Amino acid sequence: MAQKAAIIGGGVIGGGWAARFLLNGWDVAVFDPDPQAKRKIGEVLDNARASLPGLYDMPMPDEGTLSFHDTMAGAVDGAAWIQESVPERLDIKHTVYRELQDACDADAVIASSTSGFKPSELQENATRPQQIVVCHPFNPVYLLPLIEVVGTDVNKDMIGGVEETLRGVGMFPLMVKKEIDAHIADRFLEAVWREALWLIKDGIATTEEIDEAIRMGFGLRWAQMGLFETYRIAGGEAGMRHFIEQFGPCLSWPWTKLMDVPELTEELIDQIADQSDAQSGQYSIRDLERHRDANLVGMMRTLKARDWGAGAILNTHDKTMNQTRVVPETLGDIVDLGKPVKTVDRAVPIDWTDYNGHMNEARYLQAFGDATDRLMGIIGCDAEYIATGGSYFTAETHIRHLDEVHAGARIHVETQVILGAGKKMHLFHVMYEGTRILASGEHMLIHVDLETRRASDPAPQVAEKLKRLAAAHAGLPRPEGAGAAVGVR
Amino acid sequence: MAQKAAIIGGGVIGGGWAARFLLNGWDVAVFDPDPQAKRKIGEVLDNARASLPGLYDMPMPDEGTLSFHDTMAGAVDGAAWIQESVPERLDIKHTVYRELQDACDADAVIASSTSGFKPSELQENATRPQQIVVCHPFNPVYLLPLIEVVGTDVNKDMIGGVEETLRGVGMFPLMVKKEIDAHIADRFLEAVWREALWLIKDGIATTEEIDEAIRMGFGLRWAQMGLFETYRIAGGEAGMRHFIEQFGPCLSWPWTKLMDVPELTEELIDQIADQSDAQSGQYSIRDLERHRDANLVGMMRTLKARDWGAGAILNTHDKTMNQTRVVPETLGDIVDLGKPVKTVDRAVPIDWTDYNGHMNEARYLQAFGDATDRLMGIIGCDAEYIATGGSYFTAETHIRHLDEVHAGARIHVETQVILGAGKKMHLFHVMYEGTRILASGEHMLIHVDLETRRASDPAPQVAEKLKRLAAAHAGLPRPEGAGAAVGVR
């Protein structure tokens, strides 16, 4: 049975949490007195459904059930996880916790999205302080992996479970060792924000110039390495120590104005809001969200292909999700050898599609390439085997593009072995959305010695498995379109 | 004739400048007393050659000539641009400028890479202060587009030319309106750096935890939107003003320790260096550079496909580089109609390759898809035509993978029209590295009404151009491999 999360406060952050849990198969119960909450969360969910599933190379679990409740008690009934994202006022949070703890399970997690308060402050006067912990997310919560988890001594028994749950929904829990105001990331955001306010107030730069100063330069560095790994390189061959010795003295230069906080006068607020309109006013907030999500998906998938940073988190979640074996990993996982094998089952990522949301031509081949890789794995030609010096290379490909498919659609590929003998492996892939055929891919692969880059026989254990699968498929009808040439009917 | 840039100081930053100019077709003359300078710059160049050309969908200009000089006078002889990247001490910079101005052209640009000094400070006591301007880059200079350009009133006549030159080598010059210490970006970097030192000193977080707090969260946001556009969204539908009103009060919270500067004791330096070793010590600095570059290339190419941020800068540079028409844009650009048309000419990007540096299967089809797009443009089926509701869709593809190719290699595609009549366009692409054939791609395309998504006749002006090209290609021999089916010999 699906686990249940209660979302207390359904704004931008609460809505993101709802999407994160729901798309990972949890039932989600929302409490938010805002009469617009249902519509707003619906819009967050639309964004999440268009972007999150395509980050993975596995299908996500079936979505849980979403419900809205008039009372906190109704929302938290049976919930294992309660996410509080109410306004950042300690008195409000304390009142909410009292009401939650009157109704919720005693061993449920009450996680606060607070970006500023320490857990010890949140726990003050609570009925069961040990239930309450900081789990601070980053917008958009359904895409960004970071969660700052901060507890106190009284949380010792539950903090391991918190970490596990967050990993289970594909996040990266950063387990903060000591509580401080604003945890870690927001201390940086605060420092940058203050400096930015001064730059605008003093007429040095506009909001747009500040954004360009970030995203054309160090923002790109920080998306993949952060501060210290970046600086480790900046020291050149001499590394981190050299860098500090070179850069350290600059710290006493009179460079920043951070000793002082600029007053947020109406005039300064106007200045910022007007500059922001001039910079981004051509997009609606919803447009900007979609641009942001598509940018993030593409960049995170880049990092995923390199198994780096946020991309490594996605790969880990792929492995977790395939524990239910939606696609087989070895010959033994296949239930019925006498049928085509399901070799791909996934959502179409945004970065596979054009400006109209249609999947690009080359990505059909990418999906078929993934299908081939999976079939190779099934017959034992996996990473471990390849490391011993043999692999299959594609010699020839024939694709028929039969129908279109959109970003976010769930596609799967079924693969039939037409020939598997000697150095050759002849495969026929068919791509579907549901029962609708999208494309076929026919491929001739040759086993290659990776040292000589020439054709060679596969190792006996691989040859034997391929032979078994080919024999089982020999009874299948020859697929429609097999053996066709371009333009020949 | 190629323009000449002199590089004064060839460390990490100077070497990056050398690569940026050299790969954009400038001759580069280096002065650096370090006996290792030649080797170090060679290594930066290796990285740049592997990463920069693949960011573009055009070939870059032929590399200029690189030379090393024992004197500043020798390096600056005939140079239009002189980039100073010597240590950050004002007395050293003043001495260098005196020597440079004794030898260089009076109208050459002397650009300083300083991250801290104001141009008015650099210009003090100079022979010709109007030559000296701040052009502050970001590491790696050969990949990141941002340059902070800061001048004073005396630079008025030359600052436009500075901007133009920097755009000419593919950069994004941010023209800073008022000089302040540390310009714009480094004020943020300073603020974050100080806060990070406190977090380490107080035992709140390690270098690794700080890096994760950045790259798993806001770093990904900042790579594509910066600070204000990100926050504009964070306010939800209410936008920027609402965000400031919500977030503003938090600024007076006692969240940061930035009022004070931590002393860089030996103990703190040890702590940072040791943590950094624990975090990244499994990679050499060179390894890290290659990971960083591959990550940046992939993320920047993602943004390029979306014409966003740093990616939009790449697209602009593509257009500039194709002014020399290495591939034709219209039928009229084709010199000899009776030959296959060059439809792609580019370097293989890192993100098109696997861990071994070989181009991935699906990227062959991507290059052939680009070749098809280009041929469509040549016959007038361009963005403007497509906006009127017609386009060609690929129905069928046959690829023969004949040889391997690596990241950074320059490839080109030649395209022959086999049939171009009625709704059909039958193309045969051949991909080469130099004269070596890598692959062939045979494609049947059908003209489609984008409204009904059904086959339709192309507009007369497109049909006529295609017919002319097809007629001119009719005399060419039928390409080897055309009409083949998978596995049929």
From TrEMBL, chains A, B:
Localized where? Cytoplasm
Amino-acid positions noted as binding NAD(+) in the UniProt annotation, renumbered to this chain = G9, G10, G11, V12, I13, G14
Q: Which reaction does it catalyse?
A: carnitine + NAD(+) = 3-dehydrocarnitine + NADH + H(+)
Tell me which Gene3D superfamilies the record gives.
Hotdog Thioesterase, N-(1-d-carboxylethyl)-l-norvaline Dehydrogenase, domain 2, NAD(P)-binding Rossmann-like Domain
Q: CDD domains under this entry?
A: 4HBT
The pathway entry for this protein reads as: Amine and polyamine metabolism; carnitine metabolism
- Please give the family membership noted in the entry: Belongs to the 3-hydroxyacyl-CoA dehydrogenase family. L-carnitine dehydrogenase subfamily.
Annotated function: Catalyzes the NAD(+)-dependent oxidation of L-carnitine to 3-dehydrocarnitine.
Name the chain's protein. Answer: L-carnitine dehydrogenase
The record lists the organism as Octadecabacter dasysiphoniae
